[in-house]
């Protein structure tokens, strides 16, 4: 199979193989070739350049992209896309005045989703989840991280991770799996928190490692959830099984979780709606990617991650959806990119870098995904005719995507 895309108005995010993430000032630049071609063989990007240099070769298929932008697919590095049921009643309760924390304290929130998931069969959970997977592919996502964490029992955490594995086997997009047993304390352990941590470390982790069900380990490090000591113990144990740390941190309170993540060489620290100078200092010089989740801030009406402070300190930043039933029932990366520009004052260049190459870095896959690079996997978006790439975040809520290509194959 070979595919040639010609007359591309702008081919954006064109980078050398050695660029694995972009930080600070570098985020302001989005390397672009105007009036370009792109040549794909099987699942790989093989060549690209200015249309003048496009050779007349015989290919299986040609696409004329006159007036259109071609770019890498979105890399969504933080989702809980495998879940059962919905929480629209809590949404209405919040409109009427209850807070997210008040709802959680009443047994709603994560525990509500866990109850539903525990009573859902593995097949049903798979069927519910793939509807969302099909949707996010249409919205331009080509690489996705998926977390467990709505099981909270040995059996149900395994059920979630097996569903993620099954999605990986049946859908072409790139998937990374994260074990988030430490998402909340189940009701039966509220008086024996150490008992649940022991269950995670001694029962869940060995089984997950044995079935090779996860790449990463995550903890919700937050007041009322997992403390710094709990997080430290769980990440340490996960690493012993070869899982790479990531953490949910600073969503509501900043109390040293970022530095703890960096100490564990976490691949990413996610949320960061509350951020202080100590957190910024901890991230400087580290390999840890800060990740912002603007549609969570939008949906819960909580502060937005201070992207300007992060980027202006010379740090990198990635953007992801946090797709989940409680705080972000949306997997739309186009909305994330728009919201980052509108509410976090990121420029279109910064937001697109954050949602592609830096998102890929936050999944440990930026050597193969996240940019237009010779040898990388051909996961691409072809837009409808648009005036410029600025139009993508500008026209928020509109669908500007015409075609999605995954592994060199036209999907939609
Ligand atoms: O990333 N913050 C923790 N976990 C999820 C939300 C969980 C839920 O409300 O179901 C998040 O926002
Ligand atoms: Fe999350």
From TrEMBL:
Cofactor needs: Zn(2+); Fe(3+)
Residues where N-formimidoyl-L-glutamate binds: 150, 324, 326
CDD domains per record: Imidazolone-5PH (cd01296)
Binding site for Fe(3+): 78, 80, 248, 322
GO terms of molecular function: imidazolonepropionase activity; iron ion binding; zinc ion binding
GO biological process: L-histidine catabolic process to glutamate and formamide; L-histidine catabolic process to glutamate and formate
Keywords of this entry: Cytoplasm, Histidine metabolism, Hydrolase, Iron, Metal-binding, Zinc
Compartments where found: Cytoplasm
Pfam families: Amidohydro_1 (PF01979)
Signal peptide: none
Pathway: Amino-acid degradation; L-histidine degradation into L-glutamate; N-formimidoyl-L-glutamate from L-histidine: step 3/3
Lineage top rank: taxon: Bacteria
Entries under NCBIfam families matching the protein: hutI
UniProt-recorded name of the protein: Imidazolonepropionase
Originating species: Algibacter luteus
